[in-house]
Amino acid sequence: MSKFLSSKYATLEPYTPGEQPKTRVLTKLNTNESPFPPAPEVVEAVREAAKVLQLYPDPDCTELRKVIAKVYDVDPDMILCNNGSDEGLYFAFLAYCDSSRPAVFPEISYGFYPVFANITDVAYREVPLKDDFSIDPEDYYDAEGTIFIANPNAPTGIPLTRNQIEDILRSNPGNIVVIDEAYVDFGTESAVPLTSRYDNLLVIQTFSKSRSLAGMRLGYVIGNKDLIADLNALRFSTNPYNIDRLAMAAGIASLEHDEINRAHCRTVMENREYTVAELAKRGFVMTNSTANFIFVRHPEVSGEVIFHKLRERGVIVRHFTKPKIAEYNRITIGSRDQMDILLRELDEILAEEL
Questions:
Q1: What is the pLDDT of residues 242-273, one digit of tens each?
Q2: Distance of alpha carbon 106 from the chain centroid
Q3: Which residues contact residue 317 at a Cβ distance below 8 angstroms, ignoring those fewer than 6 apart?
Q4: Which domains does the chain have, with CATH numbers?
Q5: In Å, how far from its chain's centre is CA 107?
Q6: Is 48 in a helix, a strand, or coil?
């Protein structure tokens, strides 16, 4: 960093995104992208939108919000569109965390939460997970801060039920609760139905995972109209044209053909169950994931060894260095062919190591 950087960022530890290889790899299972391309109608909608790129996009995302509202049966004024779900999270940190309201989130969760807390200069409290890596809802009762929970959690994939989230909401009438549902479409109950009943709930979702649009950077927040107005005030104070024409067109077309996305999700879930069963036969231990990834360790071979040996064979998964999870690897669920390649390479690694 340069000598000109403000001293307030001297200790900032940036988020480390998953590796995006610049060269061809055989099997990429490290960043939880969809193995399926978007629907042809999405590609065509983007092509049409590209014809008028000389014009600014609609800063209100009017048509996109209408389509999202129809899908979730909420009012369009309860929706804020973002440049990826991360932007929605960032706005929530800005709006609802300060010197008197710390951020509260699991000790093991999405790595951006402590980064957002640090860059917004707010205190935060990391809540330990239970021994089985699950979140105990009671740990968040009367939290005395703004709560951020990924559901299902990352990188474990373990979900909370909607009833458990409602218990957290009831016990925190004076605190905002942010539920980050990036992976909700692969078998987890969404908290969106609760947004019409609780004025302290924000639900954040993304088009990146279940709707095959990671390359478009498109997300949205659903919540009480007054909360959305708060976040819009921040958006219009920073980047009012935060959603470009191409992303907006892609999002609308994707939701208008959402049956294709749902079919893809079902296939991913089938591939997840297949992979879990096959890994169990090989002695691997896994959390009960309802995401499009699994969290895996082998009792006799270290997670780091498996990570590096897979990479040598052209299979990239995600390894974390936190001591509590260093024996695990997070593996994205891809196509059946991709999962069979993974299993084949793991068989060779186990033959070498055991």
A1: 999 999 999 999 999 999 999 999 999 999 99
A2: 14
A3: 29, 30, 307, 310, 329, 330, 331, 332
A4: 7-36+259-353 (3.90.1150.10), 40-258 (3.40.640.10)
A5: 16
A6: helix
